[in-house]
Amino acid sequence: MDQAARDTELDTILIGGREQRAILIVDYDDTWPSKAASMAQKIQDSLGPAALSVEHIGSTSVSGLAAKPVIDMLVVVADIDDEEAYLVPLESIGLRLRVREYGHRMLRTAELDFHVHVLPPEAAEQIDYLDLRDWLRVSAADHALYESTKRMLAANTWSDMNHYADAKSAVIQQILTHARNWRAGQPTS
Question: Which string of DSSP letters, residue by residue, matches the chain?
């Protein structure tokens, strides 16, 4: 998809429009897991049983991996289209809707230090998020590849943060292939 087409798509799904911000990659911060655990508890408390699962995902969930200082969380709900069941409770803990697209919502804090992705059960993205996280925790080679890719791309100027994320797609797909092969060899519980 070319940039103009992607910008048109972003204009339909982003609440508040596209944003141009510098991409800052920082060294791993040992406080990220406890901050994520605190947010996970707030999310679980606000949603109750509507939250089928709450996970810390993304680069901040991988020890030692440099990342943007934005903690990504994954929340699974039974019905993504029943926004009333989760948007109001999540807004009550300071989150605001940023992305509304088919099968995915993303909320964030005003400080831009948390992104909360809401997905339905068994969404392919849910599996990708968890496979990527879990594999990067065990593969030193892909850990290094992902970090170097992020640092290289962060040096560019992007008209929207989503273009930076899009630019990582090929490397993420390569890493996910390794992750899926690894996951397939893991014992089932």
Answer: --HHHHHHHHHHHBTT---------B---TTHHHHHHHHHHHHHHHHGGG-SEEEEESGGGSTT--B-S-EEEEEE-S-TT-GGGTHHHHHTTTEEEEEEETTEEEEEETTS-EEEEEE-TT-HHHHHHHHHHHHHTT-HHHHHHHHHHHHHHHTS--SSHHHHHHHTHHHHHHHHHHHHHHHHTSPP-
